[in-house]
Specification:
Length: 187
Amino acid sequence: RPIDKALFGEPLDATESEMFKHLTGRSEPPVGRMREAWLAFGRRSGKDVKAASLAAYGATIGGAELTKGAARGERTYVMLMALDRDQARVCLDYIREFFALPVLAPFVTKETAEGVILNNGITIEIFTNDQRRSRGRRVGLAIFDEVARWNSDTSANPDEEVFGSVLPSTANVDGAMLIGISSVHMR
């Protein structure tokens, strides 16, 4: 909870601040919303549900400013990029369950095969780790799920290429974030 609050720039009380310092090794919690975060989790620790919860929160309660500056008719995307189609589907199932909750259900305009279109100008979509998917989109939040395990037939470093392709898509979005979540693969 302290890390989630810190990600979105919510104030931490003294206990949460100490826990944040202990968990991250940082001397102080960040001031304001984080632009980028990389979270290491153990196997079977709930990375997919964490990624889905961050997407749901970031597209609704924690993402009010993400649509500011969008052109008329332009949507802001919350992109959840997973290792493969199966893992992306798992994340989408979690997202749909979050939006079935009474507090989030009113945001839903339409469910699609790849995500959820919200009435606040934000669309959540799930993808596999493909650098081409962020092009032409206005990205307010990109979540890389199980990023240390990404592979590709066309690239030795798909994580770096996707990271490099997403950054320009976040450039004109105030408060845009990129969050990488993974179990540890190697140093």
